[in-house]
Amino acid sequence: MIDEKTPTETWDQLKNNENTVLIDVRTPQEWQQIGYPDLSSLNKNILKISVQNIYGERNNNFISDLTEAGLKPEQTLYFVCRSGKRSMLAAMLAQQAGFSHVINVQDGFEGPADQTGRTGSIAGWLAEKLPAIQPI
């Protein structure tokens, strides 16, 4: 079973534990058009490693991408996507590959849409007002 934490709980762990890493598994298009968590005030960088492409096809190199990024099986890895679904897939894949401390960030970066169809206001990283880099 994959553990889940809220974005604020994730932020606190990233701040208080130097061995934690946040991995954004969305697509480059999402990072450019929507933004991503900003960890610079924690003197950390977010890793951007897509678990799927824009067409929903799985990145068959996902685990090797994690390894090539220098991640170790004993590290605590937090996975984030738009809503928490792709990041759950990423966490499961990492766990199956031997990463023993994997956590899914609940509601992801944007969370569910509100009544108007707008994301980022109900739940998720943006709704919890955590630092983010977003296009203007």
UniProtKB/TrEMBL annotation:
InterPro entries found in the cross-reference section: Rhodanese-like_dom (IPR001763), Rhodanese-like_dom_sf (IPR036873), STR4-like (IPR044240)
Pfam families: Rhodanese (PF00581)
Listed SMART domains: RHOD (SM00450)
All residue ranges annotated as the Rhodanese domain in the record: 16-121
Superkingdom per UniProt: Bacteria
PANTHER family hit by this protein: RHODANESE-LIKE DOMAIN-CONTAINING PROTEIN 4, CHLOROPLASTIC (PTHR47377)
Name of this chain's protein: Rhodanese-related sulfurtransferase (PspE)
